[in-house]
Amino acid sequence: MSAKIRYYIQLSIAWVLVIAGTLILFSPFPLGALTLTLGLTLLIYTSEPFQQKLHDYRRSHHGINQRLVQMEDKLERRLRIISHTLQKTRPQVHDE
Description:
The structure is a single chain. The chain is mainly α. Helices cover 78% and strands 0% of the residues. The protein contains 5 helices and no strands. It has helices at 3-23, 31-46, 48-60, 62-78, 80-87. The model has no long low-confidence stretch (mean pLDDT 84).
C-alpha cells in the first residue's frame, strides 16, 4: 500500500473516531472519552498541520502545556504511544 493511501486512511479513521467520540461523549458509557482520545492521538500522529497547530497552542498557553507535560510523564509508563505523540508537539524551552 502506498504511503499516500495509508496516510488518507489513517486520517479518515482519526476523524471518524473524533466525531464518534464527540457524539457519544455524554453517554452513560465511558467509551466516548476513550474514542475521542484515540481519535485525537491518531490525528496528532498522522497530521503534520494538526501537530503544528497543537504545538503553537501549547506554546501560547503555558498552563495547558504544563498539564500536558504532566500527563505525558504519567502516560510514559502505561501508554507510550500517546505519550510519544504528545511529546512531538511539546514546545522547546529556550534558555535565555
